[in-house]
Design a protein that fits this description.
With 308 residues, this protein is an alpha/beta fold. It contains ten helices and 14 strands.
Length: 308
């Protein structure tokens, strides 16, 4: 598979003593949807800015399309920032037109691209409205139109659904998928594990400025979970029973539900039934998810007495 971006030993900090990015290696394949996930402060946005050439790394090599960053590669990459780069006193149409001109598009071709971008994000009917009059969700759609009006080969989304009503998130996801179907490579930054798993073909996990895992989504899950995962539905609070299951790797626990990794489905399931007896309501095998990998790599399993 052709690589659109490769970074090796990327190190960056706003001062020499406190690096934000620590020797990061990252590879992004052509026409993939690459999810970059990590907690707040892990370095996702900083890495995106370094990749775009907005910040200069202290060391490391970065190539787009097998070239060092230059004006030509910059025109092939779009960016949808978390903090919207919009002009609120301009109309919807004027905002997208302005961004198209920044990429040196002109004339009838630019007008066609502006219309196509606004049609794709569902804002063509609102094109004469001032940006200030739009809802938060419409502003994000306008933000996307501005980031892709120049028809890039790659587009980077930074927390695309943050601050948006839950009901509007599927529409944003649909736009991302449509851009991917048009042949664009998507780089999607998020703290939301569920949407990363739902959207992405490849995943990179950042923690404290380090890339701690990277690969195809299915391969990454298989790498960290070679044994069966059991879901236990219990009669009592989880915390009161975890000591009885301490020799198992507990992946997640909340209220009366617990996920753990077994070694052998038949043997361990029988053993768990015998240990817990009537305290166990039901035990069933489940497919491990990206969230389980993330919990293992980034955070400890939660024990919470409150329901979901």
């Amino acid at each position: 598979m052709r690589t659109v971006f490769r970074g090796d030993s990327i190190r960056f900090g706003y001062d020499k003593h406190h690096p934000v990015l620590k020797d990061i290696a990252i590879t992004i394949e052509d026409q993939s949807i690459y999810g970059l996930v990590g907690p707040a402060g892990s370095g996702k946005t900083t890495l995106a800015k370094v990749m775009l050439g907005l910040e200069k790394p202290d060391r490391g090599t970065l190539t787009w399309f097998n070239e060092r960053i230059n004006h030509s590669t910059n025109r092939r990459v779009g960016y949808v920032p978390h903090k919207k780069a919009l002009f609120y006193d301009l109309t919807v149409y004027e905002n997208v037109m302005l961004f198209g001109k920044l990429y040196r598009h002109r004339g009838a071709r630019l007008k066609q691209q502006v219309e196509q971008a606004l049609q794709l994000v569902g804002l063509w009917e609102e094109r004469r409205q001032d940006a200030l009059s739009l809802t938060d969700e419409q502003l994000q759609r306008l933000n996307i139109a501005c980031g892709m009006v120049h028809r890039p080969d790659v587009i980077i989304f930074d927390e695309a659904t943050s601050g948006i009503e839950v009901e509007a998130i599927p529409f944003i996801h649909a736009i991302v998928r449509q851009l991917h179907d048009l042949g664009m490579t998507i780089i999607y930054l998020s703290q939301n594990i569920a949407e990363i798993e739902q959207l992405c073909t490849h995943v990179g996990v950042l923690k404290d400025g380090c890339m701690i895992a990277e690969g195809r989504l299915d391969s990454l899950i298989a790498q960290y979970f070679k044994n069966p995962v059991a879901k236990l539905e219990l009669e009592e609070y989880v915390e009161e029973l975890t000591t009885q299951l301490s020799h198992y790797s507990i992946l997640y626990s909340e209220a009366n539900t617990l996920l753990l990794e077994a070694m052998d489905q038949q043997h361990d399931f029988q053993k768990i039934r015998s240990v817990l007896g009537k305290k166990l309501r039901r035990i069933s095998p489940v497919e491990p998810r990206l969230a389980n990998v993330y919990d293992r790599l980034v955070r400890r399993p939660r024990i919470d007495h409150h329901s979901l």
